[in-house]
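Reader question, answered in our methods column.
A reader sent in the components of a multi-part assembly and asked whether the whole thing could be modeled at once rather than chain by chain. We filled in our standard form and ran it. Here is what they sent:
COMPLEX SIZE: two components
ENTRIES:
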Amino acid sequence: MPETLVSRIVRGERLGGVALGALGTLCLGAAAYGWAFGIWRASEQAVYSMIKMPVLLVSVILATTLLNSMLALLLRAPLGFRQSAVCILVGLATTAAILGALSPISVFISLSVPPPDPLAFGLPLTHPRAQAANRAAQGLLLFHVAVIATAGVLGNLRLFALLRRIGGRRDIALRVLVAWLGAELLVGSQLSWVLRPFLGRPHRSPELVSSEMFMGSFFEEIGEALSHAVGTEGLLSLGFAGVVFTTMVWFFLRSDGLRVEVRPGPRGLHVEGDEARFFVPWAKVVAVSARPAVVLFEDTHELVLDVVGAPARRLLVRFEAPEPRDLLALRVEALRRRVPGPGPFRQPATVAATE
Amino acid sequence: MRLRLQGEMMLDANDPTVDARGAGGALDVYPSTAAPVYVPRPSPTPPLAPQVQPQVWLAGENAPLPRRGMFALLDGLLRLPANLMFELSTRPLTHLRLGLLMVAALALVGVFVGAFGGGYQLLAVPLKLSLGMTFCALLCLPSLYIFVCLSGGSHGLRETAGALLAGIALTSLLLVGFAPVSWVFSQATDSSALMGGLHLFFFLVSAHFGLRLTRRALANIGGRPVPALGLWTLVFLMVVLQMSTTLRPLVGPFEGIALADKQFFLTHWLS
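And here is the structure of the entire assembly that came back:
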């Protein structure tokens, strides 16, 4: 991530230029992939999809920027409204740039698979010829979805790196990214439903938008498809199983302590967590230990402080490398041993820890 | 000059009955007319450790908001809640301004919600949302105050009301952020169930942040968290959901100005 870009966004200087550049990249990349998307059906469909892909991405940005900027502030990211908008633009522009770069490959694949059967045109979908042609279209659609998903993942990794550089804290960057992605996925899924078709159907003529664009929604369609597949009871069972699974995952993966930041002082630890900040005298620090922690496919190093008389029994301080963790552990241990008295196991009031 | 013994007693050194002779830190006290009585040095009484109370964290400072006007209130709600709470406690008009912001935000949300049904719903739903939420806040304020007092807090009613108002104002503000998202769906579907579920989801997410602000603001005022607030949160959510059922329809076509038949909100959703 270029340092000049990060510093411009942090300082909020000349963001208009950044936004325009990102918007231009987004439009070009999305248009290129739109062409690749629609070329299998016909050149006409390629032109329509070339117009609709940038419109889709820009519409997602317009619909979610206000909400995402508020969520970023509430999740304690140091981003104002303009900075949030630019970060979202940069993230989607990266995705579009990757899509544009992959568009020649997609064109090649689209032109390599069997073309739409011209005899299927005008036939109802229930006709065997139309069904066979539709199966080829569905296979190609899955390929395009995989490419778009890959580009999306890479673009969001870039956005995550940008948010980390701006905010400085990994957990805040992750929360903001998840919140933004949730809003964009919700709106994007519905807008892509409204603006369909992108690939086109072999039994129907190329069209800019469907005649049924304002009928139904993405989630209704998913729900109906699932309902046909598994029935209403099956749907409820799947929902219940999903809730149980999510609860179990949360239960087993939840942290066994309170994640905090600490500042050692002469008389104890100044602790700052998400909910509160407090002071823990050295006599109340029972044990200090270090351990690795695996957080979302990334190794992190934790300093574990077992304390008494604090809002949590275990405090966790996370580091990206083991060396600063070990340094802090040594410092904490050295300061702890200087405290006179029997320690926290007997009379915790022996040491007058006044601050 | 006042002298302090290593214990609890305070003596006045100017008192002629007191003759302080230090010996290893202990004071020998005796009456002036009697023979000196040597008081053995008391064993050191360990001072009580100070109560380590967490200070609940509100972003910002205990100072006025840096700007004036309505945008300053938005800034306060999103970025500087500590400054906002300071304004609520020192400037009486801040309650009124925050209330107006809440009503205006809910009216705007109501326009987007009513766009699904169209027609008179564009007038009725903004009115229902803003008045309904105000009424829910007034209904739940006494219980919040009682819960806070029973938890040992020393908050005044005005401070409690300010914290509740800030939380609901933030909820309303977030609902405004969700309004374009709900509009995208409302233009493409006829399903009241889907739109109702979507609005419910958006409300719950917004209420999470809003009530979190209320919880932190109350803890910041009292210097410690308020334990019973989780229970009160459930009560407040239930009141709001029931109010939405009482004032139905919010999603769907206009059905006159009279209130609908009485129904519990869960029964209405499952029907």
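What stands out: Chain B has two domains: 1-44, 70-270. DSSP finds eight helices and five strands in chain B.
Send us your own complexes using the same form.
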